[in-house]
Amino acid sequence: MFFSVLDLPFINAIFMNPVLIAFTILLCLKLAAEVLLDYLNLRNIQANANTIPDGFRGFIDTETYEKSVAYSIAKQRFSIVDSLFDTAFLAVLVFSGVLVWLWAKISELTGTGLWGQSIGLFLLGILLSLPGLPLELYNTFKLEARFGFNKSTAGLWISDKLKGLVLSTVLLIPLLTLILWLVNLPVWWVWAAIVITVFQIVMLVAYPMFIMPLFNKFTDLEAGDLRDRLMSLAERTGFQARSILVMDGSKRSGHSNAFFSGLGKMRRIVLFDTLMNQLTEEELEAILAHEIGHYKLSHIPRLLLVNVVITIAAFAVLGWLLQQPNFIQAFGFQWQPGLYAPTFLMFSMISGLVTFWITPFSSIFSRRYEYQADAFAKKALQGDGQPLICALHKLHKENLSNLTPHPLYSAFHYSHPTLTERETALRED
Hints:
mainly alpha; four-stranded mixed sheet; globular
């Protein structure tokens, strides 16, 4: 039986329960911060909409700038709607009793053994993702398509979802079952963090080799000047890559990217076909030099180490909550020994209300690495930062990126420095 949002005794119970009070406060604060940041960014975009700001006139024309403004405004408005939807959906799930009811029904089918709990959590996760599909479809097939970015079809979208569902079933259910089993061990949260870390490292190798080819086609870069140029860059920077691959990213989106995947001798350089169509050979070399910079400066293992610390802390908190019956009882679940899934479920659903406030600190950390990778690229190109600047200009232009983000918004959300910040740093001696 669901609670009624107008049920006064239930409302009174909320304000008498410290867990629900904390949940409500965190939920409202997160929504307020998200909407405020989106609003500030939207106002800043609109304030610069009529004239191309100084510094950008050399690489973007009026028509493209107006299109980028329209795209940025549309994305920002969609972000506000998305935040409102996510908050309302979570509030309804928690305060209506729907979440408890769904879990009870699923548990009747799966049982409450370790496998049953993990399968139940997986099935519940699928059900909870369904209400958000209309927004995802709108973003892909309306908003992105309106500005010429979406290249996907309904059939491809459905195929991607089905493949993702199969892969998630095969990978996540056993992983979750293992973690639930570890709960019975001393300092289980340390072992759980180790398991997650090992899984992530394995996926660094397995994902590009076995999973990505299920979604995209990869072909070796043809022999020629570009390949020779990129391989020469890899050799002189000490980045031994097994191959340079071109990915057909254009079959889903007009956005572009470049990255390297794998570890050790299995490293591969991957270029989106859209990127190759947009940049010159010199600019592609600069982009690759930036990506190599992340590797040579040990950014990936450092990020893995930070992730290990965060994972251990998260599991430690989860371990503490498992010993607090009042936590899940506050949300309407019954506590019983050996039944870990409700605590796992609520922790996963509300942890974002806390980690949201860590976002600006992780953004600072990430932007620092981007500056370092840019500096590495400049040095690798014999102290010439102009090719990377030109590449960044084209990428921002082709992707219709927001050229005038609000400083507070970019400081909070941007994992990369703004175009102006990166260009200024690259021009410094």
